[in-house]
Amino acid sequence: MSIKDWSQVGIGLLVLGFSTLVSWYEGSALLDHSWEWRYSAPFSEMIHGSVTGSSDIVGLDFFVYAAKFSPLYPGMMIISASYLFILIGFKLFKQTGFRIFLALLGAIYLTLSVVISSSPTEGGNTLFWLFLVVGVLMIVAACVMKSLQPIEGRTSKYFTISSENPLI
Fold first, then answer.
1. For 135-163, what is each residue's pLDDT tens digit?
2. How many CA atoms lie within 13 A of 56 on its CB side?
C-alpha cells in the first residue's frame, strides 16, 4: 500500500478514535440517570441480570445511551468505520469480490436500520436514517460498478470488447 492509502487509513482511524472517545464520554451520563438503566443498558442486563447500581453498568451501554440521546458522534463512528471497511475491502478484494463485499455490507446496514427502526428516541431515528442511506448507497455503488464493467464480447457502434483488444 502506498503512502496515500496509509494516510487515508490513518485519518479514518483518527476520526474513529476521536468519535469513539467522545461517544463514550457522552454516554457516561447514563450513570447519573438511573431511570434509563432499564431501557439503555442491554449489555449490562445480559451480563448481570438486572441493573441495581451504577457499578453494574458495562462500558458498551454508554454507546447505546449516546446513540439514543446524542447521535452525532456515534454517527461519526459509523461513517468512519464504514469508510475504513470500504477502503480495506477495496484493497483486499478484486473488482468482483469488492462488489459482493460492498453489497453484503450494504445489506448488513439495511438490516441494522430495520432493527432500530422502531426506536422512540430522536437519536434512534437519526441512526435509522443513517444506516438506511449508507446501506442503499453501498448497494447502488455495487450495482453501478457492475454496470460499468465491460463484458467480454459486448459490441458497440465503435468497437468490440474482447480479450485481444489492446485498449482494455
1. 999 999 988 887 776 655 555 555 555 55
2. 17
